[in-house]
Design brief:
The structure is a homodimer.
Chain A: H1 12-31, H2 38-49, E1 53-54, H3 55-62, H4 66-78, E2 82-86, E3 94-98, H5 100-109, H6 112-124, H7 127-131, H8 134-146
Antiparallel strand pairs in A: 1-3, 2-3
Chain A binds a DNA duplex through helix 1, helix 2 and helix 4.
Chain lengths: ~150, ~150
DNA sequence: CAAATTTATATCGTTCACGATGCAAAATTA
DNA sequence: TAATTTTGCATCGTGAACGATATAAATTTG
């Protein structure tokens, strides 16, 4: 028999992992018509907030490393959402900018957050309580982010 | 400028996704010496709780599909953690059982949950509040799980 | 019982996540 | 200024997720 602490149902991380996966699944019907994936949607969020950013800034905001972000951006360039130009001041940098297509998607995407929150509310019965996790999740993320030494 | 709702900082899903990734990262120093990944650890948790289960039962408990679980189990069989035998009553089934190696790891793993919770407490300053998210995460997961029609 | 449907698993292709490594352009130091 | 270190990005390989599709064995239906 298993040790009590080794039961799946006692694992916080498993819940985070599952909740993240399932929530991303809810985005599917909204992102598929736009031809983008959830991580690509996150990149667009970053660029819609401020266009023309180097790869490292995007990576930092997404809390990912460049070895994840670079291929992601390459795919997005290939599908015509962004351009990647060399930095003028620092020629190591790649400045990522939205194409017209990338900009245009924002109009179609602006209702997604509301749709999502409606969907979640409908399915869980209580979105209120779920939104209340946000500050705690931030605390967790902030704590874990530091530990990387 | 971005619509307010389209800011990365306003996204719940992004937090779940990031929190899950970073928390899995905390497992690394414990799982690496055992030669397993986090999803493989989850499979072992399921099998330690009850040995000899068909793929579909494992998949259901992990809330994943067989197209994710099958290759995962194949890799685990390759590394000598499990065996996969044909079901006797239902020959479509693959019964997954722990090898001696798979069983032996349980002893080394039994301290992981406590280590994790210590690490998280140390890094966040307050594990109490984080553990309190569990019922809400369960509510969210339960809600989203149903929606798949 | 035969036909149709469902179930259990597997395979394939694409996209991510991430450790390890490489490289050239800055920035720092001696 | 030359040598060293750091930074920004890219590449490679492996392991996941997951949609789509396939196949054979059960199960249900007609």
């Amino acid at each position: 028999m298993a040790y009590e602490q080794l039961k799946l149902e006692n694992q916080l991380c498993f819940r985070l992992y599952t909740a993240a996966r399932l929530t991303m699944g809810v985005y599917h019907p909204y992102l598929d018509p736009l031809g983008i994936t959830y991580p690509q949607y996150l990149v667009l969020l970053v660029l819609w907030e401020q266009d023309k950013q180097p790869v490292c800034d995007i990576a930092k905001k997404m809390m990912l490393d460049t070895n994840t972000v670079t291929p992601l951006l390459q795919r997005m360039e290939k599908s015509g959402l962004i351009n990647r130009t060399r930095g003028k001041e620092d020629s190591r940098q790649r400045i990522v900018s939205l194409t017209e297509k990338g900009k245009a998607i924002q109009e179609q995407a602006k209702h997604i957050p509301e749709c999502l929150s409606n969907d979640v509310a409908l399915k869980t019965g209580d979105a209120e309580e779920i939104v209340k996790m946000i500050p705690t999740l931030d605390k967790l993320i902030d704590g874990l982010k530091k530990v990387e030494q």
